[in-house]
UniProtKB/TrEMBL annotation:
It holds the Pfam family Calponin. Gene3D superfamilies: Calponin-like domain. This is Transgelin. Belongs to the calponin family. GO terms for cellular component: actin cytoskeleton. The lineage of its organism: Eukaryota, Metazoa, Spiralia, Lophotrochozoa, Mollusca. GO terms for biological process: actin filament organization. PANTHER family: CALPONIN, TRANSGELIN. InterPro entries: Calponin-like, Calponin_repeat, CH_dom, CH_dom_sf, SM22_calponin. Residues 25-135 form the Calponin-homology (CH) domain.
């Protein structure tokens, strides 16, 4: 966790603990190994959250990964990782934009999720989704299954009221005094 943020407490601490519990070290190892293979860069593949954060925080490996997949997609200045915070966050943001262009709208992460180690599980999910999109990491992407319905089946479905819509059995307005003048509402003459 970054030292520039105040320590969370109460509900915020509970929410952060739930988020941290979603982090999967095995998937993180797979992501780091895949990044190393794709980029040709040396990567410490230890899956603990601290190492995962340290390896990717500056955005350099993510930018190299994007460029390995699609050359020139993320602009990197020089051959070394950036040291200035805004440059690091810029690279992370460019990687996220690259992922969005690759069609990963539902698996994206925010820059702060990685840079300040707020939600590393979302970073793992995004990288896994990118690898899955390329057929190189994680389970294969589903192709979907086309369904054919007969006209008779379509008509039969129109008469069914789903449980999500609820029911109005037993509901009425008996006992409601909307707009009715009652004795306990009279103003006192005093």
């Amino acid at each position: 966790m970054s030292s520039t943020r105040a320590t969370k407490s109460g509900f915020a601490a509970e929410a952060q603990a739930k988020t941290n519990a979603k982090y999967d070290q095995d998937h993180a190892v797979q992501c780091l190994e895949w990044i190393g293979r794709k980029t040709g860069e040396p990567v410490n593949t230890c899956g603990d959250p601290e190492n995962f954060h340290e390896q990717l925080k500056n955005g350099y490996l993510l930018a190299k990964l994007a460029n390995a997949i699609q050359p020139g997609s993320v602009k990197i200045m020089g051959n070394k990782p950036p040291t200035m915070a805004f440059k690091q966050m810029e690279l992370i943001g460019q990687f996220a934009e690259f992922c969005k262009k690759m069609g990963l709208d539902n698996e994206l992460f925010q820059t702060v999720d990685l840079y300040e180690s707020q939600n590393l599980s979302s970073v793992v999910t995004c990288i896994t989704a990118l690898g899955r999109k390329l057929g190189e990491l994680g389970p294969k992407e589903s192709k979907g299954q086309k369904r054919e319905w007969t006209e008779e089946q379509m008509k039969a479905g129109q008469n069914i009221i789903g449980l999500q819509m609820g029911t109005n059995k037993g509901a009425n307005q008996s006992g409601m005094n909307i707009g009715k003048y009652t004795s306990y509402c009279r103003l006192s003459p005093f």
